[in-house]
Design goal:
Chain lengths: ~70, ~325
Amino acid sequence: MASTAAVPFWRSAGMTYISYSNICANIVRNCLKEPHKSDALAREKVHFTVTKWSEGKPEKPTTRSDDPDV
Amino acid sequence: MAMAALRREGRRFAGSITAPRPMPAIRSALISDEQVPLGVRSISTQIVRNRMKSVRNIQKITKAMKMVAASKLRAIQTRAENSRGLWQPFTALLGDTPGVEVKKNVIVTISSDKGLCGGINSTSVKISRAIHKLTSGPEKEVKYVILGEKAKAQLMRDSKKDIELCITELQKNPLNYTQVAVLADDILKNVEFDALRIVFNKFQSVVAFLPTMSTVLSPEVVEREAEAGGTLGALDSYEIEGGETKGEILQNLAEFQFSCVMFNAVLENACSEQGARMSAMDSSSRNAGDMLDRLTIFYNRTRQASITTELIEIISGASALEG
């Protein structure tokens, strides 16, 4: 059954539910008071390297990170 | 791997102890031509002392690695057990159907970046290959998404063209949900799938790791299965609040389920990795201790033999002078 109802704004903007909930969680974290705020923000750091493969060959890897130096 | 090398060295060593004459067949790495000329009966004690020093160092290092792994395990174990509560409601609602018939399967293999952790990465890769074999067929497509260096190295050898994505350096910061969520988002955006099979090692206890596969279906497949009946067919009995349709909610749920299952899988695999590393380093230090005992006995025997030989020479020389 095809859903013709209006999709939420974030879905039509190309976001998945996961990224939407991530952004919401980040907003909530930023609402905390110090020192809990810096603890929470330090706890949820992201760092990983993704390599997309095509036809059995790896392409250039991209690093997604919160570190300022990477 | 370290333990097997130590054992091999010990066996080669035992061969050279039993033969008094250095035959070319059992010339080991211990006796090299520059240090011991042909015809000399015994091995110099210096070589044995060097070997004992290096084995003692290896024992200390592996013991330290075991302590480090034990402390890391303690830190991560409670988090892994708590994260089990994230996916259990999903399985209660949507069910876990490994036997679902779909066209596009994507196998997500979770492994570690670092080595010296026993056989858990090999088991994960073995299971992934078996699932690949099971789910491939005419008009069916099976792809890999690999997390961790170790599985990448193994799967690169024979399944190169089936790899979609490789993710490494995941454990640079302590594992958290945000990171896994961003990762899951990347996978969702880049890979087309009907069903995701996540392969990881479930942490049962410090010595027991169970290779597990979790199945997450895409929303379209969930709708199809819901119409077919079974656990998913009971979804219709739920009331939907808010202005969203059932298809909308199913899509959100499927994405969130993937993210939660991934989080739990990554945590459990990290626990299993530390536990396996603990037991591997423990057996390595035990083997090093055994080897050290054998080397000490050999060293003492060699030392006493050379002292006896000297005494004999002195005494026979003295008696030759007298007589």
